[in-house]
């Protein structure tokens, strides 16, 4: 029998409660969306001319230098500020940034070497920094009410959207003004993490405006594998956006100041999609490569858009996408894909071999779920022959946790579904919208649990603090791209996905939530207390 919130909820609402509420909202969109499995969300249309694909060079975000190192720890400083960017050629776009760029600067760390990032908030709104995929003590994990206020804006703590409107307040919130130090022990498997805003009710529009950056963790064992490295290792942050006539980023926020009233306009309740595909902040970019193996570290930083990526040569051949890592680091052994689905917040570490492509040839990265302009993602131009001493070893790692179902001390069920929240549309977990004052799950440090996650439409579900393994999808074995240790799993419409994890690391208050950023802002988040 599942313990915890699921049981109480059923007793209170009755098993059909959540479904009944859902029907009462007239949420035909959820049912309709379930029948269109490739898309959850509605697409904005840009009001400026869009550039042709594969013209803009691929930028690679600069690696941030520490301002100091002491006692085996590195200290970084990031200023969150408004800045203008030229994302579309000839168009000026005001953005919210980390250090003036989108994506923000990349932080490179070694496993087990602690990092402190001091964030300074010069934006007009409170912010919260979360290191996605980080094994981070709760005080630095970016809980949505642990606000970093702009200078002199103490009154902002009174404007926390749903929190204040509905008399919900969070006595545990730790609010700071102007600067805040986030400390990351990074005692974890090497992988690609990303940091992004996580403010209560306003995460989706803040990420959309530019508050996202990469954080890579490395270690000696990974370095010794001989994988493609240096200029042949490329981070690829994929994100869709749309542009208003004045060049600004279009977003259907109910409150464009992003201060008081959360949420988006009705057609976009299921998620906001853009008609421009950016990679590392450039529209449909092109990158010149050697005829050699490249390691592509792909992150889907889109709010709601899913992709199914393939790499297609000029003569229509699909190159192998050799997956070597998942969200939480290296797989045990490579897995070869031709088509790679990637949901919001997921990361895939992939090796692609361009050595068989004729010099001068173009390899397009295509999104099979897109149509029109959103079908193209980026391209590689194979520029020259080159020596290649990189390898993809048959054994990549031997330290993956081997939890078995029989290790689990309990099984919990969570339904991720549309429903009603504060007299409007919401996205609910177990029939309830997020409430910082309620503890949804209490577990003991070290416990192994199986969670069964059930979806109406697409929900990419993310757990803070821990990595997990996918056990099954609707009673069937996991899919090839479910391999390895993950922190975000894509639930497909109607699916029940079982995951297994061990809650170790730190005690404290953490979160799990849907990483469709609009769903997250509209209630689809819950508290996880590790005691
Ligand atoms: Cu990237 Cu709580 O998430
Ligand atoms: Cu996270
Ligand atoms: Cu969702």
From TrEMBL:
Q: Which reaction does it catalyse?
A: 4 Cu(+) + O2 + 4 H(+) = 4 Cu(2+) + 2 H2O
| Ranges of residues in domain Plastocyanin-like | 85-144, 424-528
Keyword terms = Capsid protein, Metal-binding, Oxidoreductase, Virion
Its top-level enzyme class, in one word, is oxidoreductase
Return the InterPro entries for the record: Cu-oxidase-like_N, Cu-oxidase_C, Cu-oxidase_fam, Cu_oxidase_Cu_BS, Cupredoxin, TAT_signal
Q: Where is the signal peptide?
A: none
Q: What is its EC number?
A: 1.16.3.4
Oligomeric form and interacting partners: Monomer.
Q: Which family does it belong to?
A: Belongs to the multicopper oxidase family.
Q: What is this protein called?
A: Multicopper oxidase CueO
Q: Which organism is it from?
A: Microbispora siamensis
Q: What is the organism lineage in this UniProt record? A: Bacteria, Bacillati, Actinomycetota, Actinomycetes, Streptosporangiales
